[in-house]
Amino acid sequence: MSLFTIKELWSLDCNEASLSFTTNSVAVANIDNESEEIAKVVVGSFTGFLRIIGPPAGMEEASDNRFTFPAEPLVGNMLAESQLGSPVLQVDTGKFVSGSDNIHLAVLHPNKFGVYAVLRLPGQVEHGSQYKITLLYEHKLKRLAFNMCSGPFGKGVTSTADLSLQSKERHFICVQSLDGTLSFFEHEVFTFSRYLPGFLLPGPLAYVPPWDSFLTVTSSWNLQCFKYSSLVMSKDDANVQTQETAVGKKLNPEWSYSIGEEPIGSLQVLYNPRNHSEVKVVVGTLRHLFCFGGGGDLLWCKRLDNQIDSFHSFLSGENCSMTLAASGNEAGAIYVYNGTTLKWAAKLPFVPVHLSRIHLRELEGGIVFLSGTGRVFVGYLGTEPSLFIAPPIQARELDYEAAEIELTQLRKIVAESGDQNVVASKDATVEVKVEFEGQKSKWIESNGMEVMSLIATIKILCHARVNDVRVNICTPKPIVCSHESVMIGDIVGRHNYQTEFYLESEAIPSDLTCEVYVFYLNDTGVPHFVQKCGIKVPLFIIAKPHDQLEREADAKLTFAVNKPVMNLASLYNDFDWNGDTNSIGLTFCLYSGDKVTLLASTKSSSSSASRYRVQSNSMAAMHIIFRDFLDRMNRKFNREKSELKITLVGVDNDVPLLNEYFSEIDAHILRRRREVQIKEDLSGRAAQLRAIQRRLLIRFRDKNPVPLTQLEILLDGSLDHINDTLNLMEENEIEKQKSECRLSGATRLMLELIQIQGGRDSSKLKKSIKSTLDKIRKASHPPVVIPEPKSQAELKPEKLIGNEIIERMASARSRTARKRTPVLAPIPEPAEGEMEHVTSAGETIQNASLNPIPEAQEDPMSEVLPPPEPLAEESEQTPIDVPPNLEETPIESSILEQMHEDGSQEDNFCDGALLKQRKKLYLKNIRLDAPFAQMSAFVEGVPSSAVDIY
Amino acid sequence: MPLDYVMTYWFDHDIRFDLLTRYLKPYCSGEKIIEVMEPVEDTKGNNGEPGKLVVTNLRLIWQSKKFPKINLSIGFNPITSITVKIATSKLRGLTESLHILARTKNSRYEFIFTNLVQEHNRLFALVIGVHRAYAQSRLYREIKMRSATVVCNKKLQMLQQEEIVEQINGVWNLSSDQGNLGSFFITNVRVVWYAASNELFNASIPFLQISEIKIRDSKFGKALVIETAETGGSYVLGFRIDPKEKLYGVHKTLLSIHETFNQYPVFGVDFNPDTIEQETELEKQHRFSTAIADEVDEIEDNPEMASDAFAAYFADGVGDGGETREIVYSPELGLAVEKPKDGFTLQSLWEVIPST
To answer: Does the record carry Cell membrane as a key word (chain B) (predicted)?
Structure first.
């Protein structure tokens, strides 16, 4: 990058399409043979235009030896323009006409070349001058031409020192065709043609008068020199030569030099016309300049810093070979080399395809540039460094207030969009609606069970285009949905799709509420979702009417409603009741087989109050019907805009059904225990199997066959055992899921009852729980399990639970360990502080729900046997701590040892710590976190506003 | 000569800054809005400010959206190159931008425009296309002498929007001593004379460049004299037509065509942008008519050039302001150079660290 620039003298734009010109398109000469010898620029384009451009009229008036910088760049004077009708490949000037010393113009077209005379007829004023371009002779070419060169071929000027003779020299023309033939023309006469040896592609061609030789660069990147005499001599002297000659003697180059790169531009031949002893030939490639002397000696070679696009060499003073090289890098620069030394550099306004020197009258050394679009530019080197730097943009008065407002707006947008936590979007871009169509139900088979399936339509309405829409539906177990997660893609407008709801297994669903989530990306790619909660699945898909009214049941719940008694059949008009529609009660049969009876009291019914009873053997089933009944009542009376009040009857401020609830917990914990037991059993069996396999293998490997000693029978037996155990496990799994659902339902019912009973008055609730617990304490087998703090992982509960409990449980543990008492260790003497127990239980549960529950998952045999399928909930958890008691199980042990260990497993199950872990686990798994937190909050008297969920 | 016509003529020949909005509106009937693009950022001088770019058949107009008085008017004539380059825009970051180099008498300018609408970069194709259409229609607007593209085989090479009004033979061009016999083609756009003996000796003079047409006495007798405007080289061309009645008839024809032309000039820039938006002709007209925002309080203190905003667009140094420096031959380089300032040599200028 140079600080200097090329200054413009004048320029002219020919305005042609790019690539209309090449380095051969320009010749600089006094072409009209004017007496003032002003050099003109002759430009021929591929579009067939021949232009002769002279300096602007104003330039001619410059005084002798003094050229001044024009105040403004001048426009060149278009002296003549002619359309030759055929692309101009090359223009050249020389004495091409016999008997004339005038300079004429040779123009090479693809299939001909012509020699023209340019004549100026001067007028009174400048624009009155006219130029005539006259064709003197032309040669049709039989082969398509590539380039040409001219010179006094064969008239070795070295032999004649007489300058007057030299001025009388005649210039001949040699045309190189695309197929590598050199055709020689002596003015109007074609002389001969010659093939170049080893020709593939044509390269630049030059004639060196002092050597009387031709130079070309072959396609193998060799610079080759051919003597004119040898070109002449190699011809057959048999017949008259024509252009179509196809025979020729083997022609050998005088010398050859490998330059190893593709040449650019033309070959520059430098010699002093008065002294032919020193001849230099400069060859340029993309990255090098080579200079050759006589006999093909490399005089110097210059490796260039920049790739060059065109170059021009000339002699300056005594044998100083100067080279101008133009580079297209960095938007154009020109470098001036003296030999191999960089002497100057300047910026160029454009990247030229051709550059050469021009004589500006007396002043030598102007530079002509030609751009690919035909801009002819004559300039000189500026010596004033251009230190110009564009001034900084004036800062306008900043509107700080507006910027502040914009900033806050942008921050708001960023805050809204940039948050990683996706929150339910508040804008109503996407609306979701779920429609159940009662008619569209059918009986289907699910897991060997005939169940009712209901078709629901999910309707999505997008007000703007949203992308990557995904719909997820959460259903309570065991209700399933045929398309739980659907990828819809990009939508705008309405989109509907149908899905089926049906029961998957016989378990009792704890709830009928579904949730639908629609996730999407908005236009800017920010994720959003909308959720639709509280979609109630109709009751009839899990229950069917039972013809007979069941009057007996274990659990009963009686409650009063501040409304007149309803006709139950009309309330449940979506069921097909075969019997009396005025019946006082209805019995529903769930697919689990549980029956629930809803009774309306015929007694004490008044216009302002009525009593109902829900009874069943299962609390979960009761909950479904109870909840559904309340929903139906609410719906009905909400229409009448009156509030529904429910009071429990006959429980005297107690929380009812607590006993039944505890037995549900017992049932579930038994299932859990059974599961662990089966797993232990399985691991034992698997170890046994492996041991047998190992021994069998040893037998088989033995070189001397030995009897198997009944080991194969043992192997079959243990395999059967394992299969049995796995079957057992599967059965247990199903049962466990059922009990999970039942417990969930029961817990929900309990919470609702607590809500109804306690209302929002926490002191009342405390009282009721206390009285209930009192009653339970009096019962023989109170199933309250006090969590036992022991594990290192659980330090918090330790702080919460009183020391006496710790001591008591410690003694209980030692006792149970000794006596192998059942798991649910009863509290021996519940003397005081039951409230604290419940409180601490609640706390523990709360904490447990916050912390991941440690789970014993490490089955030592898992590498041998396919591991039993873990529960979905369990697989989600990462096993953190394995209770130490389980770790005690030896991994590698013999069968007998294993058998022995099986017995000791019992101890571990009875251990309080394990029990605690198990209890936490099931509490977690049935997802009671929130309700229990609420429960404990009630107990502790936390303000009700914080816990009001329902 | 009506004043407003003189006013219009700089449109495509000049680069002006911060004009009053009425100079931005095409009120000369020959200038037509080809497209209005919005928002476009003037990345060079007003980086970070959206505005609109109006492309007419003669020039590019950029006007800031916020401050209508900040604007540019770039005639197509001074533009030397239009390329697409990567530029850093405040509003779009690193992006492809339209890079325009222009040169007036004394200065070189550089302009960068960035289209702020992401969808389609019509900006590039449109501006380049209109500029090409402008460059290829120079015969409509510039005097051309000795051209090869004017007359061929005694027939006028017609331009697209050109119609021959009259062809007159026997017209003597009086630029040389004995005169040259030739013919006139009078069209709705220009007057063309060519020599009967040499078709390459011709002159194409658009009415746009003609400042006066009169009949004057000369040494050849009564002659038709066509004077061209300063932008057209201030030529005085004399023609003799015999007999006198024919001369008067030609003079009358030329005068009436010249007058009509001044009313409805033909600039010859023909460009049909492909319409992408579904928009009726009426909507388009409305959009174009409201393209230039009006300034509310126009204070006409300096109507021609009222700003120094051009400084931001300079591509290199300001011209030397007419200061003439001698050009000398440097034997050291073998080339013509600007004479170094006193006390400097080429070597001392070139070698930052002098080699001793």
So the answer is: yes
Q: A172: distance to nearest CA of chain B, Å?
A: 29
Amino acid letter at B192? V
Domains contained in chain B, number: 3
Q: Residue A626 belongs to what domain range?
A: 542-649
Please give the angle made by the CA atoms of B128, B129 and B135, to the nearest 5 degrees: 90
Residues of A in contact with B338 (CB under 8 A): 7, 69, 380-384
Q: What pLDDT sits at residue A178?
A: 93
CATH of the domain at A120: 2.130.10.10
Point out the residue among A69, A124, A365 whose CB comes nearest to the CB of B335.
Answer: A365
Number of domains in chain A: 4
Token representation of residue B267: 């600039």
A323 CB neighbours in chain B (<8 A) are none
Separation CA A622–CA A763 (nearest Å): 27
Indicate the residue of A80, A338, A380 with minimum beta-carbon distance to B327. Answer: A380
Same domain, A552 and A503: no
Interface test with B, best of A32, A130, A369, A386 (most B CBs within 10 A): A130
Distance CA A78, CA A94 (A): 22
Same-domain status, A140 and A255: yes
Most confident by average pLDDT, A295-304, A441-450, A545-554, A859-868: A295-304
Q: What is the pLDDT of residues A728-754, one digit of tens each?
A: 999 998 888 888 888 888 888 888 877
Same domain, A497 and A562: no
Distance from CA of B282 to the nearest CA of A (A): 30
- Angle at Cα A658 formed by Cα A654 and Cα A661, nearest 5°? 160
Cβ-based neighbours of A302, under 8 Å, separated by 6 or more: A288, A289, A337, A339, A340
Same-domain pairing of B119 and B243: no
Nearest to A393 among B312, B327, B328 (CB): B312
Give the residue numbers spanning the domain of B256: 143-263
B6 at interface of A, judged by CB pairs closer than 8 A: no
CB pair distance less than 8 Å for A131 and B201: yes
Is position A390 within any domain?
Answer: no
Q: What is the pLDDT of residues A791-839, one digit of tens each?
A: 333 333 344 434 444 455 555 555 554 444 344 433 344 334 444 444 4
**Residues of chain B with C-beta less than 8 angstroms from the C-beta of A360:** 336
> Both A533 and A587 in a single domain?
no
Cβ-defined contact of A72 to B106 (cutoff 8 Å): yes
Q: Do A923 and A864 belong to one domain?
A: yes
Q: Flag whether residue B200 sits within 8 Å of chain A, measured between CB atoms.
A: yes
Rg (CA), chain B: 25
Each residue's pLDDT tens digit, A630-658: 888 888 777 776 677 777 776 655 666 77
User: Could you say which of B146, B319, B334 has the minimum Cβ distance to residue A316?
Assistant: B334
Residue A436 neighbours by CB under 8 Å, 6+ apart: A454, A455, A456, A537, A538
DSSP string, A138-166: EEE-SS-EEEEEEE-TTS-GGG---HHHH
- A762: enclosing H helix or E strand: helix A762-778
